């Protein structure tokens, strides 16, 4: 039986120590192989990278030594890690690695850079998420031990059940909660008021939305079993989920990519983007449709 693969994408050290630590913890809990990949965006080809006398070959050796030292400092035996040093642009290299290796989970750091190129093309994290067909865990804080509280956010149309089962598989000791934000879109509310709808009608519509969400979450919680809890949040999805995480509702937020079908290969949704930026906890993005993987347990 083929063992599962947890792949940690390493850019800078020691900034990415938390990525390696988190990926190692998940791999251990899931009895999976820990892979580490580092992309060197330097001119040259694979043949030159294998030549220890060339500039590129020396850069590869130096990168390998730094990563192996960091692994040892984290008490991760380097000989038990599938370490890959690849040549090429960071995002493209990681996307190609996902396609070639088929990891069950990619683990990356939330980059804080915001240069003009990233504003137009998106960060490396966003570009990998929008293109890869595997779940991507974005680490936003230091590894403080196993996740204790996982929140799976759903909009009622995504594959929340599969995402929740996957999250439980990689964090078997964590408590699981399902959350959904409900609101009347501002444009719809304004249009309803313009055609004469009363405030009471809007309040009744909000109540129906909350009741529908409560029934749906209750059904999902029943299928998941255990002590799965659920909560309906009020208001804008990005803001309400950000508040939920900040008040200690979760140390891992799981959600879908939130992309429309016409642009699904180019961008991630605005809610996902905002939560990658603003959530006070790590974020796991579940791929859309039937491209998603299965639990690594």
Report the radius of gyration as a whole number of Å. Answer: 21 Å
Report how far apart the termini are: 13 Å
How many helices does DSSP assign? 11
Taken in chain order, the helices and strands follow as: EHEHHEHEHHEEHEHHEHEHE
Describe this structure in words.
This is Universal stress protein. Belongs to the universal stress protein A family. It comes from Palleronia sediminis. Residues 4-140, 147-285 form the UspA domain. It holds the Pfam family Usp. By secondary structure, the chain is an alpha/beta fold. It has two domains: 1-138, Rossmann fold, CATH 3.40.50; 146-297, HUPs (Rossmann fold), CATH 3.40.50. The protein is 43% helix and 20% strand. It has helices at residues 17-29, 46-49, 55-73, 90-101, 116-121, 124-131, 160-170, 186-194, 199-224, 237-246, 270-278, and strands spanning 5-10, 33-40, 81-87, 105-109, 136-139, 149-153, 175-182, 229-234, 252-256, 282-286. A ten-stranded mixed sheet has the order 3-2-1-4-5-10-9-6-7-8, with helices on both faces. Strand 9 (252-256), helix 11 (270-278) and strand 10 (282-286) form a beta-alpha-beta unit. Helix 4 runs parallel beside helix 6 (124-131) and helix 10 packs parallel to helix 11. It is elongated and about 80 Å long. Mean pLDDT is 85; it is low at 116-121 and 260-267.
